[in-house]
Amino acid sequence: RKFVGLTRRQDHLLRVCLYLLLNVAEESRSEIKMVNRGLVPMLVECLEREQTDLLLLAVCFLKKLSIYYENQAEMARLPTIDRLTPLLSREPLTSAVLRLLLNLSFDRAHRAAMSAAGLIPKLVQHLVKEGRPTADETPVLCILYHLSLDDRCKSQFPYTDCMPWLVRCLLSSQNPQPAPLALAISLASHRRNAQLFSGAIDKLLERALRDADALFLRLVRTVAQHCGSARGALLSSRAEALCSALMQHSSGVESDFAVECASTLAQLEGGPFGPLLDRLLPWIRSCLSEGPDELLVPLVQLVATVARSEETCAKAVVQQGLVVDLTGLLRARQEDDQLVLQVAYVFDALVSGGGPSVQQSLVQGAQEVPAYLLDLLHDRNPEVGRVCGHALVVLAHHYQEWDRRLREARFCWHNAQWLAVVQSGEMPEEHEEGPCEQFLDRSDLLSNGSATSDP
């Protein structure tokens, strides 16, 4: 009983001291002096106390100090997260603990400590317990978003109720906040999490098209990257709606939504593009010359998907004159590595899946596609070189001229150093006397040491 009374008096004294120090720390120089004298370890030690008022002051003081990187680094060396985890369930401290965890979650070391301490299930449980359908921006959502940036943390979310809660929250809210959408998009980049989202992809896509919401559509696109069934659902019923939305919202104000529409359509390999080509391809051609810059790469990706879907689609791409536009785009933006790569994908799709008629039009026409492929064969981006090499190999099987030129280009590349020496004329002639020739003619260099040693 005496020990309990002593502890109670210590807690009261510590609470008064911390309250005084917290007020003094409003002056920055005083705060620096306190930190230099070991304030952070003292505050972390106070987290093991039982008095609620003392714990609240310690957490608030740590939150104030955590805005500086040096203090965060010192907290990472101490068992800060392990001591904060039990306090999360104590109702008077929950809000302050969450805000401190939010500050610490910007640091990778603290995120790893949170994951190791099992904070993800507890945070999700706290989120589900609130049961708020609007899901406004709370510290819990922000902490979970920061944790979802690490791949090792993403693998823990499938064992929680986070994905079902996010789906209910997003679909039930008329104007969802960016925080739950950002968390859902980040989690959907993991295959297992995407499978848990795939059951609601039709409703999410319907909501995205109804509200022209770029973030909703990005969530659908991210889920479709991992789920074949979800991609099949998109192919069966929504390709035409996505094309209409793309052409309707391509202005500068709504270009973000148009980018997501084009990127989503670009994932529909083998999609039903045939009935849409008469409207889609002329519109794409006009956008390549007059549309916003951020729409160029997704549209070129879409052209590659269309060309790869069917042979008739590849023929339509060539007949509409898109190859000429793409080569002009390649000349104008040759420093844009991503755009160059996507144009290379289009050329490879035309050569590989277009059939003999498309190949002949590319080789014998004035579009110069094989020449561009040859120039990009040894691009600094290895993926560009790989794609161009594959397209040239296909052409080499059908055209002897391009087979010869491909072999010649590869020979020149692999022997570039030797060819440079030969062309520069720096190789010494046989009759030319080098700087050491006079020493090699001396008689004392003979094996017997005498010029008359021969019989």
Automatic annotation (TrEMBL):
One term under GO cellular component: ciliary transition zone
- Name of the protein: Putative kinesin associated protein kap
Give this protein's Gene Ontology molecular function annotations: kinesin binding
Composition bias of kind Polar residues appears in 445-455
Which residue intervals make up region (Disordered)? Answer: 426-455
**SMART domains in UniProt:** ARM, KAP
PANTHER family per the UniProt record, alphabetical: KINESIN-ASSOCIATED PROTEIN 3, KINESIN-ASSOCIATED PROTEINS
Which InterPro entries does this UniProt record tie to the protein? Answer: ARM-like, ARM-type_fold, Armadillo, KAP3
Q: A biological process (GO) annotation for this entry?
A: cilium organization
Per its UniProt entry, which superkingdom is the organism in?
Eukaryota
Pfam families, per database record: KAP (PF05804)
